[in-house]
Specification:
Rossmann fold, alpha/beta, seven-stranded parallel β-sheet, Arc Repressor Mutant, subunit A
């Protein structure tokens, strides 16, 4: 029988700690006594110690099954650091080893020297490794990052499904499964697949009180990120992007702007990845820009911020990635940039996968959308997702709690939803219920005859978005539940049925609404507390819009020709008082500044002076050389009257991407004459109609509105080309 006193002694000897955290001691005792354990512990909670210490104390070798080679190296180095002069005490066995290294591992295993052997699931399935492990005494099996077993987890690895039969073949021993992210469904999946339904479950709270959560609209994102990092100079952080190309681009942009940053993704060779990881751990760089390939199990306690350039595919992924900040209990800022366009891109990536996989992927994505667009405490939403209740009304450490939106009495609305769901013979998803109440008469509604339901359209004036928000909050209050096995079908809980019998007061908030514009980054969140998501001066912004309105009347120009809304929002944030400073604002080039800028900087100068405002330090974002050269090449090629298709091909661009670049150049105030190309591709009558539309009818330069207004006879590309001509001639 191992005593508590002995365990504390060994903890001090091996790891230098004076006390265990949370359930660590109980888990370790449980494992040493020969029992299976399922450990749910948030990132930074000390999962590794739960198998490292018992491995050092028990007879035999512990087999640690881990998904990432970089993680294994990191952990083996750490163990060898704790136990001096015994490098053989910990090894890893994976595809990165040469024949000599593999032989060294075999020798140390067979001699009994090795106490911890880290293996990838792929290596565990090799016949020669199975035969080797049959020859040694195994103290226990530890399945790290166990969520990889489940299709409902955020990092499903089919090889993890083969662990249980192979463990049975090698030899029976206790099993400990560990993960930082598991919904109740994923937890059940893990236990079933590892044959450990009877294991004791040790579940720590998923709440990380030191982390600050914020969702920002994806407006002028590169500038926002550079500004954030420079304000937090000297702090280390991770920026997550969904694609390798974006990782490379963002890392290059940060480097050009004087930030010590390197890229990390699976497309880089193993040596480069290991070197980058070491530089991050040794603080030779401040920022890692990475895909999700980076960070799993990385033991760096003082990461101070995690930025998501793109919204993750699931809340499990989001929770685990944000959990890499503030592991020491200190500051951890988690900033995510959100655009619904990113969700649409992720949905496109799923096409071609089996239908069940697509359904699971969509269900996980919709949970992420709900989280991003919700005005409810972010902590409450996250913890509810992981099956944990958060009882405080205001966490004081997320954007929704610091800048709360006005609440409304939701008793009747919730009762209406519960009445509709409880009265149906079949279960339906949230979108379907919201569509019935808001009167959306689509083909699915008709196929169930729900357009004839007595409650169809009863909440039409409030709209689908409103009803989705009410459903999400009814889930958080446990009045509804989602059947995850059936891809998110809704049902009333016993508490929900009680509420329906006797409705009580329940305060709800509306969701944030992210309004998309035609430009990639111009997405505006409404209903929040900050102008354009960047904390601009609302009073000044209103004055700038008034000035633009009066100037547009005087010059007989549409307001958007003078400056776009994002440009005014940036002015309200930066307070430029010279034309040079004005050119640093989004969408303002030299041409725009000279033509329209003087009245605006005069107004801002007066406002700053009268209100004694301290202006922020100048932030000039340097662009990457290649991008600057692209713009120069496009301008000179158009001057030479080259066909746009040839320009696009020369730069390896799609036509749409080239038009994006041309629009960016024109919006910044540079005059481009593409008449030569328009004459060849667009009928004269169409050119005249589109030009007149933007000059006399349009209230904004929205492409979608123009397409809707002009009708089917005009392609999107034709309208874009004439819009470029109009903005260049009238605005520049």
């Amino acid at each position: 029988m191992i005593t508590s006193e002995f365990l504390h002694e060994q903890l001090k000897v091996f790891f230098g700690f004076g006390a265990f955290k949370g359930d660590q001691e109980e888990i370790i005792k449980h494992l040493i006594d020969g029992n299976d354990a399922f450990v749910l512990m948030p990132t930074g909670g000390g999962k590794s110690l739960c198998y490292q210490l018992p491995a050092l104390l028990m007879e035999g070798t512990a087999i640690i099954i881990s998904p990432l080679i970089a993680l294994m190296k990191n952990q083996v180095d750490a163990i060898r650091g704790f136990v001096e002069e015994k490098d053989g005490i910990a090894h890893f066995l994976n595809s990165s080893l040469n024949k000599g290294q593999i032989q060294e591992v075999r020798d140390d295993l067979l001699s009994g020297l090795t106490k911890l052997l880290y293996v990838a699931p792929e290596s565990l399935t090799k016949e020669e490794n199975i035969q080797l492990l049959k020859q040694i005494k195994i103290s226990f099996y530890a399945v790290d990052e166990a969520h990889c077993i489940s299709e409902w987890g955020h990092d499903f690895r089919p090889e993890y499904r083969r662990i249980y039969p192979i463990v049975q073949e090698i030899g029976k021993a206790p099993v400990i499964a560990l993960t930082a992210t598991a919904t109740p469904k994923v937890q059940s999946d893990i236990q079933k697949n590892l044959g450990m339904q009877n294991a004791s479950v040790f579940k720590s709270s998923f709440n990380r009180p030191n982390l600050y959560y914020e969702i920002r609209p994806k407006i002028n994102i590169d500038r926002e990120i550079i500004k954030f990092i420079k304000i937090n100079a000297g702090k280390t952080g991770i920026i997550y992007c969904l694609s390798r190309k974006k990782v490379e681009d963002v890392a290059e942009l940060l480097s050009v702007n004087g930030i010590r940053a390197l890229p990390y993704h699976a497309g880089l060779d193993a040596g480069t990845r290991a070197l980058t990881q070491d530089k991050f751990l040794m603080e030779e760089i401040d920022v890692i820009v990475a895909t999700i390939a980076f960070g799993m199990g990385i033991d760096k306690p003082d990461v101070r911020f995690v930025i998501h350039y793109d919204i993750p595919k699931s809340l499990e992924g989001y929770y685990q990635e944000t959990g890499r900040s503030g592991r020491d209990g200190g500051e951890g800022q988690c900033i995510t940039f959100y655009s619904y366009k990113d969700i649409q891109k992720l949905e496109k990536f799923m096409q071609g996968k089996p239908i069940s996989e697509q359904e699971i992927g969509r269900q996980l994505l919709m949970e992420t959308v709900s989280y991003a667009e919700s005005n409810v405490c972010r902590r409450k939403v996250l913890l509810n997702y992981f099956g944990e209740s958060y009882m405080q009304d205001n966490c004081g450490s997320c954007d929704n709690c610091l800048f709360p939106k006005k609440q409304f009495e939701g008793k009747d609305d919730v009762a209406l939803i519960l009445e509709l769901i409880s009265g149906m013979k079949e279960q339906f998803k949230a979108e379907h219920i919201a569509n019935i109440l808001s009167g959306v008469n689509n083909s699915i509604i008709k196929s169930y005859n729900h357009h004839k339901h007595e409650l169809f359209g009863i909440g039409r004036t409030k709209g689908t978005r409103f009803w989705m928000a009410v459903i999400r909050q009814a889930l958080i209050h446990h009045l509804l539940e989602k059947d995850i096995e059936k891809y998110g079908l809704l049902d009333c809980t016993p508490e929900g049925l009680k509420f329906l019998e006797n409705p009580q007061s329940i305060m709800l908030t509306e969701d944030k609404e992210f309004i998309e514009s035609d430009e990639e980054d111009d997405i505006v969140a409404t209903g929040g507390s900050k102008a354009g998501g960047g904390g601009g001066d609302a009073v000044l912004l209103a004055m700038l819009k008034d000035l633009r309105h009066s100037m547009s009347k005087r010059l007989n120009l549409p307001p958007f020709v003078i400056f776009h809304d994002p440009s005014l929002e940036d002015m309200s944030l930066q307070y430029p008082v010279t034309l040079d400073e004005l050119k640093n604002c989004q969408g303002v080039g030299e041409g725009k500044a000279k033509k329209f800028g003087k009245d605006f900087i005069d107004l801002i100068d007066k406002y700053v002076s009268e209100n004694e405002i301290e202006r922020p330090l100048d932030l000039v974002v340097k662009s990457v050389v290649n991008k600057s050269l692209n713009k120069v090449y496009i301008i000179t090629s158009i001057d030479r009257k080259l066909p746009l298709e040839d320009i696009a091909e020369a730069k390896g661009m799609e036509m749409g991407d080239l038009l994006d670049e041309i629009e960016s150049i024109v919006n910044s105030g540079t005059k481009l004459n593409i008449d030569y190309y328009i004459r060849q591709t667009v009928d004269d009558d169409k050119v005249e109609d589109v030009y007149d539309y933007f000059k006399t009818e349009a209230s904004t330069d929205s492409l979608k509105e123009a397409v809707d207004e002009l009708g089917r006879g005009y392609t999107e590309e034709e309208i874009r080309l004439v819009r470029i001509k109009f903005l260049s001639e009238i605005g520049n």
